[in-house]
């Protein structure tokens, strides 16, 4: 017997019910996949460590022990705090300067044209070179790391904000003009919301880069912080310590992304039409 | 109250080849209080330019515009007029209510009053239940209403519209026409709008101004003396619309 095609209404109802259902299923599957991946990596690690001396590849158990030993020391948290305060300071300077100059260069085409090469130059210089310069200029101080983070993060933020100002819809500016809004109001009500999405994605990227290069800077030019501890551990061939620090950092960055940045982004940009919507 | 007088206005736009394009020539237009004026004419006849000159967004090269009897160069009460574009220009990052509030943000209105006026105006256009939706969640007709609300929230006495409903489908368009008429009489507004469509002109306007192109000149001014509401399918309305279409 031929089956009657579903009525449009029934079809619609089925479609409105499935997305949440599918989403939950997908989330569960994702969690299962991640757990399986972690277990798999641990097994591979364990097996590999059986055939290698501990100073080349310590076993998961050994790393765990090193980590448990580390966490209880006061220095662990102190170094942590020092590194992240450097990263945050460098990042904060980068965000403020990047947004201000991005807006300025975006608002003034001639200025933008003139300064564009500076950005290219900054972008081609590697973070290690900035670290060496910083060492020469600031010596063994907080500013060495802060400077390297700044030089890495700032061009990223500046470029994205600058591009963002170019994508401002002139129709909206015209609209603001019909309401006789001031230039400041146009900046605040049209430009700022337009550059917020590119700013945010650039800031996320910049913070990640900044956190990574901060370690390079610290191994070269600091006498405290995670990077310094890493070099110390390496010098003393305490490979388990190196692993413990590394895993802590990875976990922290993932947590930061999932618990802080992603929710903020979802909240800020809830107005955006999602790609899947019709 | 709002009156508009366009006196002997001419406008040229510079062209890329160094010549200038004569867009408007000696335009005269008198809009008494509470009238609804339609500006019609073929594409490129300078309708939008004329509206922009009235709105003070474009300066005339010759002649002047008197708003409430004051030369527009000396006029200060710009917030008593609003301008509606052909597209709705809703800010995608703002909800319907916040888009309506945009109209009030340049004026110095307290937060509490702003909130109340936004609610009132949304109710006026029948969108109270949709205040918290984002533009992409609204239908074309609803978006148009939000744009209208944004123009009305400042309680203008003069409403300027440049082909405001041309992108809507006929049914919704007719609804918007009824809405504009109702609100215009309720708020005692003077309305000047541009349209391509003779029928829209006849349904809404007391007075229709026909522009000739290149350069734009007033060819004729017609008075439409039919009682409101005007049914677009009524024979008198059709008759007038056909007559207007013939002279276009
Ligand atoms: N800012 C400008 N610079 C140069 N030329 C312009 C400018 N604005 C309009 N024009 C020219 O002036 C003429 C009239 O334009 P306008 O937009 O006023 O016509 P319109 O009657 O509104 O046309 P449409 O019905 O297509 O909207 C056109 O030829 C147009 O190219
Ligand atoms: Mg036009």
Defining key terms:
heterodimer, A: 278 residues, mainly alpha, MetI-like fold, 2 domains, 10 helices, 0% strand, flat, disordered N terminus, B: 248 residues, alpha/beta, Rossmann fold, four-stranded antiparallel beta sheet, 10 strands, binds adenosine-5'-triphosphate, binds magnesium ion
List the helices and strands and how they pair.
The complex is a heterodimer of chains A (278) and B (248).
Chain A (H helix, E strand, L loop, with lengths): L7 H43 L9 H12 L2 H34 L1 H16 L2 H12 L3 H25 L3 H9 L4 H39 L4 H10 L3 H30 L10
Helix pairs in contact in A: 2-10, 3-4, 3-6, 3-8, 5-6, 5-8, 6-8, 8-9, 8-10, 9-10
Chain B lengths: L3 E11 L5 E12 L4 E6 L5 H8 L7 E6 L2 E2 L9 E4 L11 H10 L5 H14 L15 H13 L5 E5 L7 H17 L3 E6 L2 H7 L2 E6 L4 E7 L11 H13 L1
Parallel strand pairs in B: 3-8, 3-9, 6-7, 7-8
Antiparallel strand pairs in B: 1-2, 1-4, 4-5, 9-10
The complex binds adenosine-5'-triphosphate and magnesium ion.
Adenosine-5'-triphosphate binds next to strand 2 and helix 1 of chain B.
